[in-house]
Energy-coupling factor ABC transporter ATP-binding protein (Lutimaribacter degradans), 239 residues
Amino acid sequence: MSIPDIVIENVSLTLGETRVFNEFSLRMSERRVAVIGRNGAGKSQLARLVAGLLAPDTGRVRVEDIDVGRDRRAALATVGILFQNPDHQIIFPTVEEELAFGLRSQGLDPREAARRVSDMLARFNRADWATRAVHTLSQGQRHLVCLMAVLLMAPRVIVLDEPFAGLDMATALRLTRYLETVDQQLVHITHDLPAVEDYDRAIWLDGGTVRADGPPAQVLPAYRAAMVALGGSDAFTDI
């Protein structure tokens, strides 16, 4: 699978009274991209812009030649997103219904959708989940349901918006291993620096601007050092 080109061009975005981005531009064409930064830096808003869940006030966001902020149908088929809370994504009572929903929305007939759902459950050794009620699954298991639902849609890009926050270490490692096997381009919003040390690129956002951009071996230590310095200071006004 070729790697898509994500292009953010002169984007400005205001939410409420907060100016998140002001003529912000960025290009991402690596297979694994980490986006780090403090709370309020604009990371989650960037994730939603790339997924087409937010449209910029001005400028545009393109994945390949698709303007994801204005062509919602094409965006759904091109970019998938995993949120921190799986319950913000799951809407159906059983696993097979949840997994089939995206396929049915793409126009697949029920028999073909059911076949693909069965194949996906088998791929993850979860065939016995088909008729399980979603509410009986653990948080980590519900995250896996969301991941399978995204993969079934076969997007070119998967955006991860802190999907492992709050999970125990074993579950987070298991889901990380699943993600290592996918062919899609990953844009990973995270505070977990060790999880992205082997990525192709790290982008440090600060106040809606790029403070550092490059190999994780350079960007992550600089970010860590800045946070350690900030944590040791008496400047608590911005917490």
Notes: The beta strands are 6-15, 18-28, 32-36, 58-63, 66-67, 79-82, 157-161, 185-189, 201-206, 209-214. The domain at 6-85+156-231 is CATH 3.40.50.300 (Rossmann fold). The first strand starts at residue 6 and ends at 15.
